[in-house]
Amino acid sequence: MATRAKRRRVARPVGCGGDHGLVPDPGPDPVAGFLSWCGRVGLELSPKVAVSRRGTVAGYGMLAREGVQAGELLLAVPRAALLSQHTCSIGGLLARERGALQSPSGWVPLLLALLHELQAPASRWSPYFALWPELGRLEHPMFCPRVRSLELYQQLVAVVMAYSFQEPLEEEDDDKEPNPPLMVPAADILNHVADHNAHLEYSPDCLRMVATQPIPKGHEIFNTYGQMANWQLMHMYGFVEPYPDNTNDTADIQMVTVREAAFRGAKGDAERLQLRERWDYLCKLEMVGEEGAFVIGREEVLTEEELTTTLKVLCMSAEEFRELEEQDGWADEGEEDSLTITDIPRLRESWRRLLRDSVLLTLQAYATDLKAEQDVLSNEEAYSKLSWREQAALQVRYGQKMILHQLLELTG
């Protein structure tokens, strides 16, 4: 569950109290109606959890009213309470028109279901909708001031993007079409952090949110939206985790940037011609492409095979490259080809030099340097004057630059 409100606050969650899993908030409270609805539809909430706006990182969230142990059930949502193209009141119509509603995203049937249920006076999900953010105030990258056409459609697309779940396929069903998205009441209340303490499990009868680690009393319960870098969180959900909280953050080095770094280091036209031949060879192997990027995490290179192969081919001698072309690939040469972060200092010197030059070119593409970002982040007054979009963009850039500067240290 994520909107602008899902940005991480500095303060940690505080203690909670109240009855029936409800922590009272000032003013009209839709949570009581939602909890009553949960009882009617058989949605089970553990007595150890509370739904609240207070003590959470942002917006509505879920807190531990008592200490929770790993493996404990936090909530269980019967499949009949899910809101999907199959359970909505126009499910029959959507099924009959299935062929006309196909789209690359697979979202159209759910969007139509939401359009109908939101406007239906007697929708059985009305108490659930009461916990949604006000649609007109959704803070998402798609709602920039210049883009307000098809407003309701965009708002619901943002809701599906930020709040929906997609049930994973079984291993034996990997060749099938992905399951369509669906809305999971209560489960979508949980906020996201990389270091989450709960996850959603799927079973034939219900969906279960289960604690994955001990959760002390008063602490917030967090789900995960997946291993996502800050730029992905911003693009998909409209929020980021401030540095250094997002341990899944990454930085990209464009593949063509590595090629450019190699060309700049070439000595003469003959060497540049050899590099072009090697780049073409890598393209045939589908290791590189004009639009591709090498993805670097804090602890590992996510595109290890691609980057290892690229450095190896671009840095090998002319004789080694001729031998490579004559044979079908090469034998494994051992640990020196590893590109886990801790192994980078042990790479061949030529590999490290090319990787370092590529990092320096990547850093030059940013409008500001790392120190400028650090100065703003360390100045609370200056940071507070930024809009939420500017703050998020700053956190994205800063996390990327920290990874790139780590690479500079490792290749130096």
Automatic annotation (TrEMBL):
GO terms for molecular function: protein-lysine N-methyltransferase activity. One of its GO terms (cellular component) is nucleus. Residues 47-226 form the SET domain. Keywords: Methyltransferase, Nucleus, S-adenosyl-L-methionine, Transferase. Its main location: nucleus. It is found in: Nucleus. Residues 1-22 are annotated as: Disordered. It comes from the Eukaryota. The keyword Transmembrane does not apply. CDD domains: SET_SETD6. PROSITE patterns: SET. GO terms for biological process: methylation. Residues 1-11 have a biased composition (Basic residues). Gene3D superfamilies: Rubisco LSMT, substrate-binding domain, set domain protein methyltransferase, domain 1. This is N-lysine methyltransferase SETD6. It comes from Pipistrellus kuhlii (Kuhl's pipistrelle). The lineage of its organism: Eukaryota, Metazoa, Chordata, Craniata, Vertebrata.
